[in-house]
Amino acid sequence: MSFVNIKNMTVRYDEFIAVHTMNLQIPPGEVFGFIGPNGAGKSTTMKVLATLLKPQIGKVFLDGIDVLREPKKIRSIIGYMPDAFGVYDDLSVQEYLHFFAAAYRIGWSQRKKLVDDLLALTDLTKKKYSQVDSLSRGMKQRLGIARVLLHDPKFLILDEPASGLDPRARIEMRELLKELRNMGKTIMISSHILSELSELCTRIGIIEAGKIVAEGSLEEIYTQLGVEKIIHTQILNYDDDLQVKIAAIPGVASVQKEQNRVEIHIKEQELKPEELLENLISLKACVRMFQPGAIDLETVFMKLTEGKTA
Ligand SMILES: Nc1ncnc2c1ncn2[C@@H]1O[C@H](COP(=O)(O)OP(=O)(O)OP(=O)(O)O)[C@@H](O)[C@H]1O
Fold it and tell me: pTM of the prediction?
């Protein structure tokens, strides 16, 4: 059964349709990357899942619970981090977490260990007594994640957790999200930072102008769109003759000689990388390196949204 189940959902702000007849299912344990240009409807969808907004049409279920009918039950199983959140500047890091733990009615005896554990998980133990407003943006984001974990929710809704972070803070955020994934949480993350999501997410949904335009594992989206995959190779006996033979393999789109390597573009729905390698060996190519490139999500995204990125 899907953990997230959105059926025919339409959300309007007055006359403006922000989300249009959306259908979306996310199985439990997935890290779902929600990608789309500015104004596509990501935050709106997330607010519905977080019980903060009601759609005009459609049904929404989380873990089998009706989000529109039983918002209180939903709030106990979700952790929602909006794209902009306040941090009560006058508090220390631990006071901040204790404050929210109390709001969740977590007893004092449990609270101390819980706060310490979450500070360790989010790598903020050293900042325990620091004022919240003295934290860097990356630390504030991690504190925001610690906060939404206090009641041990099954489902995390993280709206742009990596936005505005420098490269180092992004890597730290990515490591934290990997840990949460390993803890078995189902996670929905929105982002513009496509390459970040491709490493982290098990599924991707691309939304544009309120509609999901592609959804599935990265490989599925990639194949669905017929995007070419690049295989980086080093072939010691590469010459014009071999180039012609490689280019003639069914499923090879093009062969390009770069400085010290040969780039072979393949149509993955016709030819898998391992099949290409078999073909190269039977052509007596002396293959020293064979490296399928990472999925180029940027290309997929641009293709789907026709370059209308933010
Ligand atoms: N409260 C509101 N009243 C009217 N229109 C709104 C409101 N909130 C959002 N919108 C509009 O709905 C559309 C979808 O907004 P939403 O915030 O869901 O997009 P988004 O994909 O999260 O974009 P971003 O990446 O910029 O946050 C946008 O055109 C936005 O201007």
Answer: 0.81
Which tens digits make up the pLDDT trace of 29-68? 999 999 888 888 999 999 999 999 999 999 999 999 999 9
| In-domain check, residue 306 | no
Give me the domain span that covers residue 201: 4-216
State whether 245 and 164 are in the same domain: no
Which of these three, 216, 241, 273, is where a domain ends?
216
Query: Which residue among 14, 38, 45, 309 is best mutated to probe the pocket of ligand 1, counting the most ligand atoms within 8 A of its Cβ?
Result: 38
Taking the centre of ligand 1 as the mean of its atom positions, its distance from the CA of residue 197, in whole angstroms, is: 21
Structural domain includes residue 308: no
Q: Which positions ≥6 away from 89 have C-beta within 8 Å?
A: 131, 132, 133
Interval between CA 45 and ligand 1 midpoint (Å): 10
Report which protein residue has its CA nearest ligand 1's atom 26.
38
What does the pLDDT look like over 160-187, one tens digit per residue? 888 777 778 888 888 888 889 899 999 9
Asked which of 186, 216, 246 is the last residue of a domain, the reply is 216
Tokens 């803890």, residue located: 183
Ligand 1 atom 24: the closest Cα is on which residue? 38
User: 3-state DSSP call for residue 99?
Assistant: helix
Instruction: Based on the fold, state whether residues 137 and 280 are members of the same structural domain.
Output: no
Tell me whether 0.85 is exceeded by the ipTM: yes
What's the distance, CA 91 to chain centroid? 31
What is the domain count for the chain?
2
Q: Are 159 and 141 in contact (CB under 8 A)?
A: no
Phi and psi for 204 in degrees, rounded to 5? -135, 140
Residues 177 and 97 in one domain: yes
